[in-house]
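Give me the fold.
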Amino acid sequence: MPTIISAGPNLLAQHKSITEPGSPPVLLNHPVQSTVAIDGWKSVLFGLPFLVAGIGIVCAALNIISVHGRKNAPDWLIGLIGGFFFSAGAFLIIHGMRGAARRAVYLREAAEHPGEPWLVDHHWHREGIAFSAFNTMLGRFVAALGWNAFLIPFFWVGLNVPGMGRVFLVFASLFALIGLVFWGRWLQMLGELFRYGNSFFVYDEFPYFLGQTLRARLRAPHHISSLDELTFTLRCVQEKYVTTGTGQNRATRVVCFELYQEALTLPRDQFTGLAGGDIPVEFKVPANQPSTLLASAPPTYWEIQVQGKAHRDADFEAYFPVPVYSRS
């Protein structure tokens, strides 16, 4: 039986003007396939001014180009700010060019394999898919470092500019405290990595089809006996670019909507004896849901989230995309 979704996340999303009443549930703090809410050549064009500005600022910091008048900040700080602009621009340009190239390859291969989207939509491995707890932990670490690095110019202004500079100091301090959440989550991920390591999800069939049974197996992680329960959630996720606010407060973000979900919870006595082996799961995939389309921007996809709860140890969490398609 599909489980009932709590209205809590949707009420919060409505308060933030992300959704409207009657919309599918929003998955807050859910990992996304879309890196940013822009893609293709739009991303390239949007990133170009940032790249050019970053190069100019770094050149000014290195005295490659002359600056009229006195510099109001040390060269290292100017270079850091230039690095922010350059990195943002380079990221958007590379992201856009990769997306455009991938789209072109998808269209060409789709014409070569009509009626077989699973061969061209994503680089699937027929045997299954791995979840890298290391990459997830590393991504959180980089995000935490980036957050703190972004605050350095504000701290410098707050400590070196009298008067209104104290406002910057207060602002930076408050956001540095908020950044402790990033570091706390990173420490949690680090504990999960050391405790359980990376994990692998085995496909019993490839691909899976809407309206049929999905059978798969989780390769039991290390120290699985320390978990009190293990929950498998089959979910259909649709990502959208959602714009909120007006004028200067206008912002676009990637939002994950949950079109379908079904959960299966196993108590400890059903998996503790499977350490080093495979834990089988089975779901009935509904026929009236959308097919996977990872090549689209933004994408729609199916996944299985695995969550393990432990009262005296680190929890376990992993996400595994699954190839669920419609028959042509």
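The radius of gyration is 23 Å.
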